[in-house]
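Limitations
The structure tokens in this dataset are predictions for the assembled complex, not deposited experimental models. Users should treat interface geometry with appropriate caution, especially where small molecules or nucleic acid strands are included. An illustrative entry is reproduced here so readers can see what is and is not provided.
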Amino acid sequence: MLTILFDGIAYGMLLFILACGLTITLGLMNFINLAHGAFAMTGGYVTVVMMNRYGLSFYWCLPAAFFVSAALGAILERTLYRRLYQASHLDQVLFSVGLVFMAVAAADYVMGGQQQLIQLPPELSGRTEIIGIGIGRYRLFTIVVCAFLAMGLQLILSKTRFGSRLRAAVDDRRVAMGLGINVPVVFALTFAFGSGLAGLGGAMGAEILGLDPNFPLKFMIYFLIVVAVGGTSTVSGPFLAAILLGIADVAGKYYVPAIGPFVIYGLMILMLIVRPNGLFARGGAR
Amino acid sequence: MTRPLLVIDGLAAGYGEAAVLSGISLTIEEGRTLALLGRNGTGKTTLVDTIAGLTTHHAGRIHLLGQDITRLRADRRAAAGIGWVPQERNIFKSLTVEENLTAIARSGPWTLKRVFAMFPRLEERRRNLGNQLSGGEQQMLAVGRALMVNPRLLLLDEPLEGLAPIIVDELLAALRQIVRSEGISAIIIEQKARKILPLSDDALILDRGSIVHHGSSAELLVNDDVMAEHLAVSRIGTSA
Amino acid sequence: MSVVADGSRALAPMPDDAARSQIRRRSRIRLYELVIWFLAVAAIIVLPSKMLILTEIAILALFAVSLDLVLGFAGIVSLGHTAFFGLGAYVAGLFARHYFAEPVAGLILAGAASGLLGFATSFLVLRGSDLTRLMTTLGIALMLGELANQMGWLTGGADGLSGFSLDPILGLFEFDLWGRNGYIYCLAVLFTSTMIARRIAYSPFGLSLKAIKTNPMRAAMVGVPARRRIIIVYTVAAVMAGFSGALLTQTTSFVSPDVLAFHRSADVLLVLVIGGTGYLYGGILGAIGFTLLRDWLSVVTPQYWMFWIGLLLIILVLVGRDRLAGWMQYLPGRLAQSRSSRS
Amino acid sequence: MIALETQGLKRRFGAFVVTNDVSLRVERGARHALIGPNGAGKTTLINLLTGVLKPSAGCILLEGEDITALPAHRRVKKGITRTFQINQLFGEYTPLETLALAIGERDGIGGNLVRDLGSFDDVVDEAAELLSRFGLGSVMGQRTATLAYGKQRLLEIALAFASKPRVLLLDEPAAGVPEDERHEVLKIVSDLPGDVTVLLIEHDMDLVFSFATCITVLVAGAIFAEGPATEVANDARVKAVYLGESA
Amino acid sequence: QEVVKIGLILPMTGPFASTGRQVEAGVKAYMAINGDTAGGKKIEVVLRDDAGTADQTRRIAQELVVNDGVSMLMGFGLTPLAMSVAPVLNQAKIPAIITSATTSAIMKQSEYFVRTSMGGPQSALPVATWAVENGLKRVVTLVTDYGPGHDIEKGFVDQYKKEGGEIVESVRVPLQNPDFAPFLQRVRDAKPDAVFVFVPSGVGSLFMKQFVERGLADAGIKLIATGDVTDDDLLNGIGEAAKGVITGHFYSADHDSPENKAFVEEVRKSNNGMRPNFMSVGGYDAMHLAYMALEKSGGDTDGTKLVEAMKGAEWTSPRGPIMIDPQTRDIVQDIYIREVKEVDGELYNVEFTKYEKIRAPNSAQ
Ligand SMILES: Nc1ncnc2c1ncn2[C@@H]1O[C@H](COP(=O)(O)OP(=O)(O)OP(=O)(O)O)[C@@H](O)[C@H]1O
Ligand SMILES: Nc1ncnc2c1ncn2[C@@H]1O[C@H](COP(=O)(O)OP(=O)(O)OP(=O)(O)O)[C@@H](O)[C@H]1O
Ligand SMILES: [Mg+2]
Ligand SMILES: [Mg+2]
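Predicted assembly:
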């Protein structure tokens, strides 16, 4: 029972790590970036290459995955994305789907089509029994990382001026410029940060979710569910949503396997009916 | 003891290829207010936005406190000391009143506290989101926001529109006070000349993108001919 | 106000020819429309070896046209439009297998079933942001797909529904191996549906749809009952999507849960956006472009065609559809003008 | 006869009461002005009357009929409509289409999905006539989004006229309209038939006093003063909270 | 010289791309080793991608027949993809050799289907027998919830019960399932002797890792499976976790025969080190069957004749001796029980027992 709860939370946290970058690009920057998974995949492949080809430690891979994806994000932002902030949402969809297609094919070409697997350091693999609850070590690690991440993000976005500058720039780019906000820099930094988070998520998720060139397409739905249910204006919304969905999914599959696959979609629709703008909607700002 | 704060020389600007302003030259001294008048569509907003760096520059120079800002990007100009109230207010809708003020704040005499003291109404609504404000409250916030930049030059595009008469009086008095005592200057656009002229030092009238009159406010106020010619009340349909 | 209800002729407004002709110009048949339909028919004779891919295009085009009613006109973004496509496909398949294998009857039944589903789910898309609608519709389609997968006794589960074949259309035209009759059949359904959609688009109803899309608050304030309008158009679109699903089943004699898969909703959205939303022919042009391109690329480079499609999508967005389609401005009939009204 | 009446109308956002127990009566055919400090709740009141917002308590009567529960579009059908403080237009439509839409809805053909809009000549003619009355005849075929601000403002008002309301609510109609055209606009409004009721919100006191016969002053969500225009203009308390010295 | 075209339809993109890749490698390897002529005709393979979508498969098949004039079709990565071409075969009367899809139901859809992969639960039956023989009396089955999974589950359960074992529980995992945690926990809580697993090959590696992580092995639950789970292609990536896993399957890259040596060598050489797996050998044998049929018919490409020629064909494949059952057109082959072991620093499925001439039982549906 508690083990299931634990697994559910861990799974939810993993979803959150993967999706929180999207909360930033889609939620805060209002850019429908369906290519989010491509950045996550980049992080995953960085980890695979570093560990399997160069034998580096998993712990080094996490920051590396973050920075490589962030750098990639920054480059793409400067060259491509920035041209589309003013474009319609549909154009953004088209553009980012194009990027996904290219990423999928490119990953296939460079890394091959098969599942990539990594070997975790021994202290992270296996499980420990604590008061009758089976705790997977890696899952515990995920939960800890995620909890820090969520707190950090929440602080940055709500307590620093950077958060409000960013939202100001999204609301009205021209006026934000006219009032002294360096919009291009704010956007580039934010986008890079969001991409970096995706990369980190990809690196962390490779162990449990697997990694192959179809990763960006396969998990796109999950990212979107988390962000949609959680709402796009806070970090705590998607965080809670991810945990809720994680627990519901795991528990549903454990207790009622026959309708397991319906649980997550059903829950999503239900929550969207009750709270169309997400868990913590900010006064219907959008 | 005044020195030129803003010097504009032979300025031409517009939107992309389209030219709106041409041959604009003017100087504003520290501590003075300039009323910018003209009929609809004559380029008032364009002039102010050009000073803020938000239109396409075609020719001429702009100097702020001796520094050439002609090529500076808008956000740098704000840093150099320009505070701007856009005509359509453009409150950041997903920020609260307080965040609207702090997001763009720069250090200086104007603080949150002082803005709130000037517009108590804003303090009452400090946690409201930008898009949950009444029209007049948005106008106050736009003015407060420009002050939070702690500018040397205030650009106010129809700042009185939508404000209650009593607030209009108070705001104008406060602006005068600020400009006088803190050595900053202001350009104020207003549709109703008779309302603003008694309070401003100088007046400038634009027509079809060019300056057609430049002089002291007091003189203009009694110069019915000029008023009638360039700010005609009866003619319709001359605006672009 | 000079328009008075007392019926006195003298006070009736003067007929304004400029205004009348301006309004009528909206619904004028444009040259490019004639060209498209002419080419579609000519293909029957000129391209006998391409019937199958043309059939696929016609089906996808119909699907996209139906999505355009919802997205381009009512402004509802849907990532689950395939729910109606898939239901239509299954209904047509089951009907042919168990009851009656005449295609037209199956088509109508499939449309009706999808329409019902559309009506029932339209209540879920009435409120919420773009993202909410995107996900609600997606959720419905995914659940339906899962249902098709689980109800193996009825649908054949993941292996799909097979083992049926269709009678000749209206008892006269048999589905041949070259796909000629199949194409003519699909084209006829596409044409009829597009013409119906076109009627709707230029009717007062259609006018009010785009008003709801651009400014719901103002639309309500001129008296537009937004909910009812959305429910109606969503239902109509679902019927058409059901038709296209039925056509797929009938021309392939096979249905699998794939008809309810996410990628189908995504593809049709892509196709529509590529072609441009809000003028009906976007779906058709998009379907032609996308399918031909994908087919060609997947022959040239079976493994990596996605890369090139991706690249083209990006170029399309960055360069701008309008600029790419710039040459069309020289066509009399002003395609470009009608395109500018897309969102 | 009373055209529009509210009884104990209340609206709060969270704990903040924006409309506080407002009981307002507007006579049929009145030229009634609603003034008050910024944030007093004038726009909110209009939103409540037209169904954009739902009241927390109280009821709204239109010619004696309770319309509190009706959605916005049904209220329009009952004869009440408004303009918006900030333009709310259909950017992609031409003024002609915009008005045709409103007139069509009024005449109950909006749900027709089989007949071409172009075949409703009477609707189109009426729209054209209304456009020319508002000086928009020359731009009726242009996309609204590309019109000059002043023209958009006029269209905003024309659009409310198109519904042929019996009660018309105007929220700062003159804001952004150039000074020389303000009086023109108000003139068109004044010229409405005598049985059409008009409720005007405006901060331009010249306009208010030249237009309104009766004024209600709203302060902090509640009715503060009410009466004939001249009386209110000279009310010392109103001067203190709203008018200042200028009036 | 006349050309005979063979249409090869595979999922080369999308989630099942690795299947396509392996089969293609097998086909190419056969042609590299055996040349490109058969029955006096030049063989040309036309590869098309269906992205794993049934209606694409069907259209491509039809186009290949009508426009390209192929005499044979080949490929089909998944059951629905194969199912969808049945009407085309029946109408056009040309043979289609299935290289990957395994469901039993396919073969009934058309007289023109011939199969070189595996028939339904073929590989699961010997595993059931072996399990009972080796003292695993209580088993939980865990299969992926789709056609082949159902097939295999039923085959295994029937056989296992027949042999006297007890099925504790049957768990089905959705096809789109990122996390196995709840299912593995269910298995664990049921406390069986062993868990029998079938999941598609790419998913197998993830499953293995989570199996170990959850400590099922430590809890004394043995893992037995079909060979999909310890796919040769991915085995090394799974690493330590895979060691000691017992699986039953028809092919291992470790199979000791000259045919296999040559095959593995060729695939590695031309696919930058890739190790062939059971998909690959399916493609290889499909080509062999096609060549044989053409030789037999003397180059006649009449579909019905070709199918007749294929029926009863017998040869030694890299996997071992195999035969096409003349009645069912399905493959008859030996199933090996293997254990994952390290050989020369790499992991292999090392065969240690074999059950000969297993026929595909026409179970399920
Ligand atoms: N974004 C734009 N692109 C092109 N032309 C523009 C744009 N904005 C304004 N214009 C044109 O520039 C001219 C000057 O406009 P501007 O807004 O500066 O006038 P204004 O004097 O501020 O008028 P108002 O009193 O209405 O505010 C007008 O003819 C207008 O049509
Ligand atoms: N959605 C909302 N949530 C919270 N507060 C709101 C909301 N909408 C409006 N308010 C508040 O209600 C008060 C009344 O606003 P309203 O727009 O009715 O004022 P008004 O009288 O029209 O003022 P003005 O003359 O400035 O337009 C304001 O203080 C505003 O901040
Ligand atoms: Mg202006
Ligand atoms: Mg207001």
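Some entries come with short summary sentences. For this one: Chains B and C do not touch (no CB pair under 8 Å).
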